[in-house]
Amino acid sequence: MKVRQRFLGRRVPGDSWLHRTPAWAKLAGVAALSVLVLLTRDPVVNAGLIAVIVVLALTARLPLRELLAPILRIWLIVAGVLVVHLWLTDWLTGARIASTIVACVLAAALLMLTTTIGELIAVFEVLARPLALVGLPAESVGLAAGLVVRSLPVIADLARVSGDAARARGLEASPAARTVPLVLGAVKYAQDTGRALEARGLG
Predict the structure, then answer these.
(1) d(CA 90, CA 87)
(2) What is the tally of structural domains in the chain?
(3) CA gap 113, 185 in Å, rounded
């Protein structure tokens, strides 16, 4: 559980300006950053945004090791992107895509380090209010969004465990050895979550 909670970072207790910033503003900032990096498609802009994120984390008195932890967990993916594009296209394309991944992951980590799941659910509920016009309760949509946020690190951890188990058995080249335990683990997690919600009258 500990590894899962720390995939994008657990909320770091604090009373900094970033902790006190409303969750909707931080979520809007992450969305704006994602749109910006996708529109500009410029590694220099991405590098500047990464520097801004690091400065924001420092001013909020967040440990850099917590901010950078998600990047350390996916560094093989980032390195693979660079190598593949150096081979198939050019270094500029590789740098653009890799820096886009890093910038977006760091922005998401900064959000999670300073925001509780409850605060995010409240924002999702507000955003989902127009869906009441078609019969979807905002509370249910907010809960579903919160579960998605919570499930992402769990699925990532299951993928890591499945990969480690496959390598330990010498089956790292077998897609089935990696995907079957992942699917079974995800189904079990979904069933456990459903039972927990039903026990609380939220089924």
Answers:
(1) 7
(2) 2
(3) 26
Which tokens hold the place of 97? Answer: 């895509």
Residue type, 195: R
Q: For the segment 137-180, what is each residue's pLDDT rounded down to a tens digit?
A: 766 666 676 666 666 666 666 776 777 787 788 877 777 777 88
Tokens coding 47: 């590098």
Q: Is-above-0.90 flag for pTM?
A: no
Instruction: Return the C-alpha torsion angle 158, 159, 164, 167, nearest 10.
Output: 140
> What does DSSP assign to residue 13?
P
In this structure, the answer to whether residues 82 and 125 fall within a common structural domain is no
User: CA–CA separation, 61 vs 38, rounded Å?
Assistant: 29
Q: Cα(42)–Cα(34) distance, rounded to whole angstroms?
A: 13
Question: Can you give the residue range of the structural domain that contains 32?
Answer: 1-115
**CA gyration radius, the chain:** 19
Contacts of 14 (CB under 8 A, 6+ apart): 60, 61, 62, 114
Per-position b or e across 35-51, b if 16+ CB within 10 A of its CB: eebeeeebbebbeebbe
